[in-house]
Specification:
The complex is a heterodimer. By secondary structure, chain A is mostly helical. Helix content of chain A is about 35%, strand content about 5%. In chain A, strand 1 and strand 2 form a beta hairpin. In chain B, strands 1-3-2-4-6-5-10-11-9-7-8 form an 11-stranded mixed β-sheet, with helices on both faces. The chains are: A mainly alpha, B alpha/beta.
């Protein structure tokens, strides 16, 4: 199952929204195949009666009062923004206007 | 004064005896950091440090200063600092100035400690050698042709080379303990849930924990006392009563049961490392500890579990770097293309590899075979530790199978690089506290001894580590 080919790496890089060069696709395909082969050893472990652990903490939900508090100062937050339009982050058009 | 005090205790005593001031220690640390030749620092924040030092001197004069007041420290650059550039070792955060400080930074600010600057690291803490930084590799102060370990390499070097009295790192699979071992200092990872992760750049959220580097165990315990405790901004922090982590430091190991897991003495471990660790075990036994043979059979699966869960969590956490709210933006033909180009240019090769691996493990058709399977084996690993701690007070293992290796030796072979963390990452998988203390040398390079305790048993962990430290004697400060 594990041995990767180029097309899988290309597809997954697309899902992860990462542009790769041809050379990177080639190199990562080879390197990640080795890693996946090592990881595949887990298939030999019998886990039929074992529940999964998502977190080691003995808690599930942590509730607090829903109190309105000040947010971070807008000017400080927008100082880091590559594009700003008033109190919004500016990005390229996503939906065309009709 | 021409060298920083080695320990927090020495610094506190000198400050209280008025033999030095926070401002003098700060100037010295800044000078040492600026003269660093190991690429350990990404930023020295002089003005901020000097202002903190002046405030610390006032508190010291007033006479009610806490133990870390006026003590210079170094901050791994994955921990957010308000108004001070925070890079995570990545181009993608180019120019990022956090609008708030991490809780750990605020707690050290409140303790009067003086932050000297930000230290170099593997990009987003992904690495075991500090070679994956966008700002160049960090060098080991014991031998500049070798790596310092990673990912918190800069923080380990800052302490080992006498540029700071202590430092903070983050540990997701060994990123504090392994560089501590390779640089000959103490490095400690607390129990998951002890320390707030708020304001720390997230990597793998069920594994990440902040902890200290220091030249001695007591300083690490003092720093942990300042860091530990519930934080309403991090729902994974546990509300536990404050406890002294220093009271038991001189209690020794007589009568304690120390487990030696046989799976941690594997083929492939360097003979010099095994010799040093076996000698340490014998010394602990002479001090009155009872050594107990322990088996943790799933240890061998730790690496596989870790290299599914950790990249999977990272792929979700690092989705936020999209060039919209902060950092680098590389404009493309449309928004999706801007995301791809920003992330393609902004991330380095190891980060890209892990994001692809993590996205793959979570993708439709593979989720059960990889992610779900890894979570179940995680349960097995945790259970085995729980069973061991029903029989022993702590476990003793090597921290790393090797001493510091040559820069460039493993960087093109990810799996070989990942094996550096084989002895440290099971501790993160199970959420336990672990500490690495210097344990002699092999071929002139430092070896680390790891102690592991049950959840929230940091007091026991520090007690055994301090007992071993007294046996081993202090490590020399590296050039």
């Amino acid at each position: 199952m594990s041995t990767l080919d180029r097309s899988v790496v290309e597809k997954v890089a697309g899902l992860a929204r990462i542009e790769l060069t041809d050379e990177e696709i080639e190199r990562f395909t080879a390197q990640l195949s080795v890693v996946l082969d090592a990881v595949d050893r887990l298939r030999s472990v019998d886990t039929s009666a074992i529940p999964p652990t998502a977190s080691v903490l003995p808690v599930d939900n942590v509730m607090r009062e829903d109190v309105v508090r000040p947010s971070l100062p807008l000017e400080e937050v927008f100082r880091n923004a590559p594009g700003r339009d008033g109190d919004h982050f500016r990005v390229q058009t996503v939906l065309e206007q009709r | 004064m021409n060298a920083l005090p080695r320990t927090g205790r020495e610094a506190a005593e000198l400050l209280r005896a008025r033999e030095t001031s926070a401002s003098e220690l700060t100037d010295l640390a800044i000078e040492r950091a600026r003269a660093d030749t190991h690429n350990a620092w990404l930023l020295v924040s002089d003005d901020h440090a000097r202002a903190q030092a002046r405030a610390a001197d006032q508190r010291l004069r007033a006479g009610d200063a806490p133990p870390l007041c006026g003590v210079p420290w170094a901050c791994k650059d994955i921990i957010g600092t308000k108004g001070i550039e925070t890079t995570a070792g990545s181009r993608i955060l180019d120019g990022y100035l956090p609008s708030y400080s991490a809780t750990v930074v605020r707690r050290l600010d409140a303790a009067g400690a003086v932050m000297i600057g930000k230290t170099n690291l593997d990009e987003f803490a992904m690495g075991s050698s500090s070679e994956n930084s966008a700002f160049g590799p960090v060098k080991n102060p014991h031998d500049a042709t070798r790596v310092p370990g990673g990912s918190s390499g800069g923080s380990a070097v800052a302490v080992a080379a006498g540029q700071a009295v202590f430092s903070l790192g983050t540990d997701t699979g060994g990123s504090i303990r392994q560089p501590a071992a390779l640089c000959g200092v103490v490095g400690m990872k607390p129990t998951y849930g002890r320390v707030s992760r708020y304001g720390v750049v997230a990597f793998a959220s069920s594994l990440d924990q902040v902890g200290p580097f220091a030249n001695d165990v007591e300083t690490a315990a003092i720093v942990c006392e300042a860091l530990f405790g519930v934080d309403e901004s991090d729902a994974t922090t546990m509300a536990l009563p404050a406890e002294s982590l220093r009271e038991g430091l001189s209690d020794g190991v007589k009568g304690l049961r120390l487990g030696v897991p046989r799976e941690y003495f594997i083929e492939g471990m360097e003979p010099g490392v095994e010799r040093a660790v076996r000698a340490a075990l014998a010394a602990l036994e002479r001090e009155g500890a009872e050594l107990v043979d322990v088996s943790l059979p799933s240890t061998d699966h730790g690496l596989a579990v870790y290299y599914i869960i950790q990249p999977a969590e990272a792929s979700a956490n690092l989705a936020r770097y999209d060039g919209v709210r902060y950092g680098l933006r590389v404009a493309g033909s449309d928004l999706a293309d801007t995301y791809r180009r920003t992330r393609g240019e902004g991330f380095g090769p190891e980060v890209k590899r892990r994001l692809i691996l993590g996205t793959y493990a979570l993708s439709a058709g593979y989720y059960d075979a990889y992610y779900s399977k890894a979570q179940k084996v995680r349960t097995l690993i945790k259970r085995e530790f729980d069973e061991a701690f029903a029989k022993v007070d702590a476990l003793v293992t090597p921290t790393s199978p090797s001493v510091a290796f040559a820069i460039g030796a493993k960087v093109n072979d990810p799996l070989t690089m990942y094996l550096n963390d084989a002895f440290t990452l099971p501790v993160n998988i199970a959420g336990l506290p672990g500490i690495s203390v210097p344990c002699g040398t092999s071929d002139g390079l430092p070896v680390g001894l790891q102690f592991i305790a049950g959840s929230y048993r940091e007091a026991t962990l520090f007690r055994v580590a301090a007992a071993y430290e007294r046996i081993a004697g202090p490590m020399e400060v590296a050039a």
